[in-house]
Amino acid sequence: MNKQARIFVAGHRGMVGSALVRRLAADGYQNVITRSRKELDLTDQAAVNRFFESEKIDVVLLAAARVGGILANATQPGEFIYENLVIETNVIHAAYRAKVERLVFFGSSCIYPKQCPQPIREEYLLTSPLEPTNDAYAIAKIAGVKLCEAYNREYNTQYVALMPTNLYGPNDNYDLKSSHVLPALLRKAHEAKLNGDATLTVWGSGTPLREFLHVDDLAAATLFVLEHNVTEGLFNVGVGNDLSIRELAECICKVVGFEGELVFDASKPDGTPRKLLDVSRLAHMGWQATIGLTDGIASTYRDFVESHAGSTPAAAIEA
Ligand code: GDP
C-alpha cells in the first residue's frame, strides 16, 4: 500500500483505533486522518457525507463502535444496536459514495452463534442462535459484515471484515461497570493490592473459556491484510488458544503481585461457555499473532499504571 495513501481511522481514540494509528505511524504512513467525536459525529449522516466528499480518503479503517463488556451489553442493548448500526451504515455508505475502494470493518467474535463448534470458523456465521447477553451488539456487527459483502458484490468495492477475539491493551476501558473481563480484573487486582485486601471478586463461575488478543496484534493483522491486497472476506483474528476466566484471574494476580484469594460471584452472568476462534484462514495467508498473554498483560499493566493509576487510582480511572 502506498505510504502516501489517505487513511481515515474512524474511532482513533479507542483501543483499536489508537493501536492502528500507532502502527501506521511506525510503518511510515504519512497521511493518517482522524476526527474526534466533537469534530465529526459518525451518527450524523449528513456530516459523514460532507466529510467524505471533502477529504478524498483512499482507505477507511472503521474501528468506531459502541463497545462494552457483558453487563453493559446486557443492560443497554438499545444503545448498542442503534449506535453501531448507524455508525456502520453512515460510514460504509458515505465511503462507497465517495469512491473509497478499500475499507476494513472491525467486528467481534460475539457475532458467532452461542453453541458453535469450537474453534469457530468464519463459515459458522448465522448457523444458529446468538448468545443472548450481547445479541443486540452482535446483530449490528453482523449487519456490518453483510454491508461489506453486499457493497463488494453490487459496487465492486474491496471492503474486508476482521473479527478479533477478546482484545486488551493500551487505552482499554477500565470502568468496572462497562469494561471487559481483562481490564476489569487488572484494575481490581491493582486496587486490591494497594488496599491490602484479602480477596478479589471475579464475576460468574470462573469456568467460561476465553481467548485474548493484544490490540497491537490486531493492528499488525490489519496492516497485513492491507499490504497483501486482500479485497474481500471475513477473517477471524486471534491467538488460537484459550484459558478459563479463573486461569486468567490467576495470571493477572501474578503479574500485578496480588496474593489474596479469588472469590466467585455467582449472581453475575457467565455469558457464552467458550469462544475460541479458528484462525487458520489468516494463518494460511502467512499471519499469526506474536504477543504472548503473560507478556501482553505485563506491558498493559505497566501502561495502566503510568496512564491511570497514579496515587489515587479509582478517581483517576473514572476521569
Ligand atoms: P464476554 O466475553 O462478551 O462474555 O464479555 P466479558 O469480557 O465482559 O466477560 C467475559 C467473562 O468474564 C464472563 O464470564 C464474565 O462473567 C467474566 N468476568 C469475571 N469477572 C469479570 C469482571 O470483573 N468484569 C467483566 N466484564 N467480566 C468478568
Q: Layout of SSEs?
A:
Layout: E1 6-10, H1 15-26, E2 31-33, H2 45-55, E3 59-62, H3 70-75, H4 77-97, E4 102-106, H5 135-155, E5 158-164, E6 166-168, H6 181-195, E7 199-203, E8 209-210, E9 212-214, H7 215-227, E10 233-237, E11 243-244, H8 245-256, E12 261-265, E13 274-275, H9 280-285, H10 293-309, H11 313-318
Parallel strand pairs: 1-2, 1-3, 3-4, 4-5, 5-10, 6-9, 7-12, 8-13
Antiparallel strand pairs: 8-11
Give your account of this protein's structure.
By secondary structure, the chain is α/β, with parallel strands linked by helices. It has a domain at 7-172 and 211-240 and 274-291 and 313-318: 3-Layer(aba) Sandwich (Rossmann fold), CATH 3.40.50.720. It is 44% helix and 16% strand. The chain is built from eleven helices and 13 strands. It has helices at 15-26, 45-55, 70-75, 77-97, 135-155, 181-195, 215-227, 245-256, 280-285, 293-309, 313-318; strands at residues 6-10, 31-33, 59-62, 102-106, 158-164, 166-168, 199-203, 209-210, 212-214, 233-237, 243-244, 261-265, 274-275. It has a six-stranded parallel sheet with strand order 2-1-3-4-5-10, with helices on both faces. Strand 1, helix 1 (15-26) and strand 2 (31-33) form a beta-alpha-beta unit. The longest helix is centred in the N-terminal third of the chain and has 21 residues, at 77-97. The structure holds guanosine-5'-diphosphate. Guanosine-5'-diphosphate (GDP) is lined by residues 69-70, 110, 134, 166, 179-181, 184-185, 202-204, 208, 210, 245, 268-271.
